[in-house]
Amino acid sequence: MSERQFGDVVLSFDNVSISFGAVAALTGISFDIYEHEIVAIIGPNGAGKTTALNVINGVYQPTDGTITYKGEARTRMRPYQAAAQGIARTFQNVALFKGMNTLDNIMTGRNLKMKSNLFLQGLYWGPAQREEIEHRKAVEKIIDFLEIESVRKTVVGRLPFGLQKRVELGRALAAEPEILLLDEPMAGMNLEEKEDMCRFVLDVNDELGTTIVLIEHDMSVVMDISDRVIVLDYGRKISEGTPEVVRADQNVIDAYLGVAH
Amino acid sequence: MHPELAFAIEVLIAGLLSGVMYSLVALGFVLIFKASGIFNFAQGAMVLFAALTFVRILEMGVNFWLAIAVALAVMIVLAVVIERVMLRPLIAQPVIILFMATIGLNYFLEGFAQAVWDADVHGLDLGIPDVPWMSLLDSTNILISLFDIWSAVICGVLVLVLAFFFQKGRIGRALRAVADDNQAAMSVGIPLHQIWAIVWAAAGLVALVAGALWGQRLGVQFSISLVALKALPVLILGGFNSIAGAILGGLIIGATEKLAEVYLGPIIGGGIESWSAYFIAMLFLIFRPQGLFGEKIIERV
Question: Residue B40 maps to which CATH number?
Answer without folding.
Answer: 1.10.3470
